[in-house]
Design brief:
Blueprint lengths: L14 E3 L6 E3 L4 H13 L2 E5 L5 H8 L3 E6 L2 H9 L3 H4 L2 E5 L13 E7 L7 H14 E12 L7 H12 L7 E2 L2 H4 L11 E2 L3 H11 L2 E9 L7 E8 L2
Helix pairs in contact: 1-2
């Protein structure tokens, strides 16, 4: 069994800071990640973990029997991940050092499941549409997309919510795209890029449906039990 936690410095929330200031990799799974594991165990098929960072979720899926393509834009993340894989799952893992969605072009109608955990928040609106359309094309009929991202509904982040509400009232397709988050939330400067796409359930559902998906489950959940950050998630099926 691979325990990558032992070689990473985790904070009190069991997170490891990314090497490229793209937030944190979380070792405690979200609802979307848990569903990704369940589907891996059920099908033991071909899966992709896009924006995998240190591969916490990839390891679990492989341990449940899935073959997993692990994709991340930061080569150091993948190096750390591969260096610490157990012999039992090495044969089930492949890695790609690519930027999603622009550089990722996988075989169409091939994957049983694709995880996008804390990935969509780094995309601008046109790239969001491209990302969902690409994921739909990669999945086989009956395959599932597992998505988790950050929402604007967080205590203490009212300034973010105000911008999101204004954009929503303007009728923007993807309200919540903010290009000056460092000005609005200075504490994020050392952990996040300056442009972030916050997502709500309504528009995430709408974007998935436009890409061709059927929504199986969606909602909000706390990021961790003692924190006020609200995550949005969706599990969607390609018919």
């Amino acid at each position: 069994m691979t325990d990558i936690n032992n070689i990473l410095s985790l904070d009190e929330h069991k997170r490891a800071k990314t090497k490229n200031n793209m937030g944190y990799a979380h070792s405690i799974p979200s609802r979307a990640s848990r569903a990704f594991y369940e589907h891996s165990k059920l099908t033991q098929g071909l899966f992709a973990d896009i924006g995998a960072a240190y591969g916490f979720d990839s390891i679990k899926a492989a341990e449940y029997g899935a073959n997993v393509l692990v994709i991340d834009k930061e080569p150091l993340h993948l190096e750390i991940f591969k260096r610490n894989l157990s012999p039992e799952i090495k044969s089930k893992i492949q890695t790609l050092n690519l930027t999603f969605p622009e550089e990722v072009n996988l075989k169409k109608n091939a994957f049983d499941g694709i995880l996008l955990s804390r990935v969509l928040l780094f995309l601008n609106p046109p790239l969001l549409d491209l990302a969902l359309n690409k994921v739909f094309s990669f999945l086989k009929p009956g395959g599932k997309a597992f998505i988790m991202s950050i929402s604007p509904f967080t205590a203490g982040w009212e300034v973010i919510r105000d911008v999101y509400i204004e954009q929503k009232q303007q009728g923007q397709k993807w309200p919540g795209y903010i290009t000056n988050i460092w000005d609005l939330l200075p504490k994020t400067k050392n952990t996040l890029p300056n442009a972030i796409q916050f997502l709500d359930e309504e528009h995430l559902q709408k974007g998935l449906k436009e890409a061709g998906f059927i929504i199986e489950e969606s909602g909000y959940e706390p990021q961790y039990s003692s924190h006020s950050t609200k995550q949005v998630y969706a599990i969607a099926v390609k018919p």
